[in-house]
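Researcher: Good morning. I'm working through a list of sequences from a screen, and I'd like to move beyond sequence-only analysis. For each chain I'm collecting a predicted structure so we can compare shapes side by side. This is the next one on the list. No need for commentary yet; just the structure.
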Amino acid sequence: MHMADWCSRRSLSSFGTLCRRLDANLKDQITMKAKYLAIAALLALAGCKPTHISFLDRIYTVEEFDQQPDLRKRVTTECSSNQDALKNDSNCVNSNASQIKADAEAEKKKAEEQAQAAKALAAAMLVAANPQAARDLSRQDEARRIAAKQDIGTMMQALKLYRLDNGMYPTQEQGLRALVEKPTTQPVPNNWKDGGYLERMVLDPWGNSYQFLNPGVHGEIDLFSYGADGKPGGEGNDADIGSWQ
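Model: Good morning. Structure tokens for this chain:
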């Protein structure tokens, strides 16, 4: 059976193109048997996933081919020198692009997780080897929490001045930006102070936005930081820091 005829009959257009090319390239170089071996080997070596493989007058399923190690060994040995021809075939490369991308993303994620674990281990080893380092880290955490409380106190004073001038706190929609820029949404403050009530918007010591609620849960309004983890709740350094505390 001719290779090109078999490929066309199987309606595998990309493999058909490949078969015709190999048939022309190898016609005067190797036997018909070797041609079929070349097809099988190149498909396997390049990572393509056909459902059948032609070998002489028989068509093997991929499973049957995989279950014959002697055949696979012969195919690989005889035809490995020809694998570049198939690897340069765009149809074959494209057919595996999504799998290659998925594998790369998985490897990247694994590397990131390993890097995070290594950093955590290094920090733990540093603390274990140097008790002073542990005390320094503890002091840094406490300093950040103190700074957050000071920020909250400053902004609460600004909010009270805003209410004193305008008869109300900023709405939830207007948020803390109303202390820096005059709101344009209703209710527009009629006596908004020139220059505003804060020089600029500030982030908490961990680089996250302060949270504002109107109406509040703990008071008329609530102003708070989510702490080191940037998430609600938590304990220790991750615990929320609020105007009600």
